[in-house]
Amino acid sequence: MRSPVWVVWAVLAWSIGWTQLEMDCARPQQARSVVGRLMLSEIEGAEDTNRAAMWEAFGRCPGGSGAAACRRREQQRFEAHWERQKRAIEDKYRKMLSEFEERCQASAA
Q1: Where in the chain are the domains?
Q2: Alpha-carbon span 30 to 89, nearest angstrom
Q3: Is 47 in contact with 86 (CB distance < 8 Å)?
Q4: pTM as predicted
Q5: What would the pLDDT profile of 26-81 be if each residue is shown by its tens digit?
Q6: For residues 53 and 32, what is the distance between their CA atoms, to the nearest angstrom?
């Protein structure tokens, strides 16, 4: 069985290739919309994967009086990781849009 992470990356690889074909300077709003949808899709997939890993980590916490503190530490660790990962995804798509706009401006000149 394929892991959800593998499936997400396969879809993203296909989508990014498709996006490059669809990013037409004559239709910049359409290109921005496609990139926005791709970014949202990648963020949602990464968030689901991160959440599943966090719940697995919760399951490794000891029972009893230390359980709540362990879950709190794990949650903080995963939230910090998620924020970094989300920022990296957003930066990647901002860069993609910036390069698209630069390319369009250069071709118009």
Answers
A1: 35-108
A2: 20
A3: yes
A4: 0.73
A5: 888 988 898 999 999 999 999 999 999 999 999 999 988 899 999 999 999 999 99
A6: 31
CB 78 within 8 A of CB 54: yes
Q: Give the CA count within 13 Å in the CB-facing half-sphere of 6.
A: 3
d(CA 12, CA 18): 10
Q: State how far the Cα of 27 lies from the Cα of 76, in Å rounded to an integer.
A: 42
- Residue 57, classified by CB atoms within 10 Å of its CB into exposed (0-12), middle (13-18) or buried (19+), is middle
Both tokens of residue 21?
């074909």
> Cβ(53)–Cβ(37) under 8 Å?
no
